[in-house]
Amino acid sequence: MSVAEFIEGQADGLLLVADHASNHVPDDIDLGIDPALLDDHIAVDIGIDPLARIVAARLGCPAILARVSRLVVDLHRHEHELAAIPPVSDGHVVPGNTDLHAEGREARIARFYRPYHALIEEKVEALKPAMLFTLHSFTPRLRTEPDKARPWEVGLLYNNDDRAARIAIDRLRARGIPTGDNEPYSGKLLNATMDRHAESRGLPYLAIEVRQDLILKEAGVTRWADILVPVIRETHDALR
């Protein structure tokens, strides 16, 4: 199985990356969890696969969509972090990761993580986009923090480079969308993919988080594509 799907696109200047677009677990990996959890936010960014496909198609831009669950390997972490192969996620123990020895961790990183990021590096070098953007979804409330509601409909995350985020936040708020500025969590703490492939190159980027309950169904996915496509395009154009 391929760790990622590459979607061709003709649009100049944009590349989409979706780290958590799949809940797939290879047959030879036993996570030891209730299979129902594979449809939960701990295994996949709910709604992002269809949203990414529509957004890429409308923009005509190339896209890289991960094809493995974040419980197998979290591609949006640094490879040395414990959370790259999470032993626990939002209160759920993952026995197949908890019991993984050092050799097993290295084998999984080598099998999935490194080829995925090598593909992104290859496409960035070949396509030379003017802006990267990534799509994620977030749960309205974490089980481990039930008293902390996440009211934003969308959030823009960034670490040191906020050039694109500042433009997109203004555009979204002008449309009346409740928009988080480095919320629901800070890109200064978790921004691994964009740190590696955008900030390290001086490339502007958008790290977009949509609240998952808004993209559970086809109508919601279509609505958010309607919202995001012009904002992404306007942000790209404003940076020229």
From TrEMBL:
State the Gene3D superfamilies in the record. Answer: Zn-dependent exopeptidases
Recorded GO molecular functions are: hydrolase activity
Report the source organism: Allosphingosinicella flava
Q: What's the protein name?
A: N-formylglutamate amidohydrolase
The answer on whether this UniProt entry bears the keyword Hydrolase reads: yes
**rRNA processing among the record's keywords?**
no
Q: What keywords were assigned to this record?
A: Hydrolase
Q: Which Pfam families match?
A: FGase
Q: Any coiled-coil ranges, and where?
A: none
The organism's place on the tree of life at top rank: Bacteria
InterPro entries on file: N-FG_amidohydro, UCP029730
